[in-house]
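Incident log, support desk, overnight shift.

02:14 A customer reports that sequence design results differ from what the structure should imply. Their input is reproduced verbatim below. On-call engineer (initials T.W.) acknowledged and began investigating.
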């Protein structure tokens, strides 16, 4: 990594963490669920803002190296993969979780009924809610969430991952990029119980480790889509689909558990396995590491 690339890397990480963590801490400090969610979604755009500032507002291919366009006639199948693969991984992870813990599965949606009743609504509405969520999962969810997820992908997959791959090789670049992405979530995991809740074994260290596994696996899939399609838009849609599908398995729990470290959310120890296995084979099979160039 030459001196300019190193400077750009420091600027990117500094700006991304400063902006993202600032919004996260602000949302947690205000202690209001809707405000917190809004500030969390806004914090997802921090990586894109960092790239925007680094390149003086010019984040096209010529300036930042980020690819935006693609010929849909030739590569339309990657849009289908981006839209549907996260749902497939979520369903596979959910099925695996309930195979391991069959007693926690409830076709009557016990945990969802508890949440609905706590909200003061009728328990009979849970099946309508499930149908609406399933519809959103496969249709509007990826596009809706992509509005925020694109801000993350422009930075993490569009700029940071290629920069790290040039310096450390393809596979280690994916690993380091995933680790940086996971560290970005640390305040939310430690303070807000993001993804896993509270009071799980080894908290919060085990939650941070599992988030790293999830981010490396998910980041590998998103990078693969970007590499194959040549468009960061595909990574943004897939990231949006991951956001939409991540908690779908929770609806089928008999009761809301004390924590979600093992699953059935897609970042759990058990439920992340299908995605992690796929990411492992993509890392291993696609193409060998490029050796980093050294300056003479």
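02:41 Re-run completed on a clean worker. Output:
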């Amino acid at each position: 990594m030459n001196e300019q690339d190193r400077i750009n890397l420091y600027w990117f990480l500094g700006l991304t963490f400063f902006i993202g963590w600032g919004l996260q801490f602000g949302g947690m400090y205000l202690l209001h669920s809707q405000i917190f969610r809004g500030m969390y979604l806004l914090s997802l755009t921090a990586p894109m803002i960092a790239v925007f500032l680094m390149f003086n507002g010019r984040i096209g291919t010529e300036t930042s190296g980020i690819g935006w366009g693609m010929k849909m006639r030739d590569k339309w199948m990657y849009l289908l993969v981006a839209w549907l693969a996260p749902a497939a991984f979520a369903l596979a992870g959910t099925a695996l979780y309930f195979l391991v813990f069959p007693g926690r599965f409830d076709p009557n949606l016990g945990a969802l009924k508890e949440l609905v009743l706590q909200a003061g609504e009728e328990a009979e509405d849970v099946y309508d809610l499930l149908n609406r969520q399933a519809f959103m999962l496969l249709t509007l969810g990826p596009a809706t969430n992509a509005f925020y997820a694109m801000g993350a992908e422009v930075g993490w997959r569009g700029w940071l991952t290629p920069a790290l791959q040039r310096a450390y090789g393809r596979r280690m670049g994916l690993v380091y990029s995933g680790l940086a992405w996971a560290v970005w979530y640390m305040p939310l995991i430690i303070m807000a119980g993001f993804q896993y809740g509270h009071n799980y074994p080894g908290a919060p260290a085990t939650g941070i480790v599992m988030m790293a596994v999830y981010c490396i696996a998910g980041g590998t899939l998103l990078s693969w889509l970007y590499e194959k399609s040549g468009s960061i838009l595909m990574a943004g849609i897939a990231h949006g689909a991951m956001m939409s599908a991540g908690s779908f398995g929770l609806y089928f729990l008999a009761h809301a558990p004390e924590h979600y470290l093992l699953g059935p959310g897609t970042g759990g120890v058990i439920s992340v396995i299908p995605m992690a296995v796929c990411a492992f084979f993509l890392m291993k099979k696609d193409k060998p590491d490029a050796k980093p160039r050294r300056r003479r």
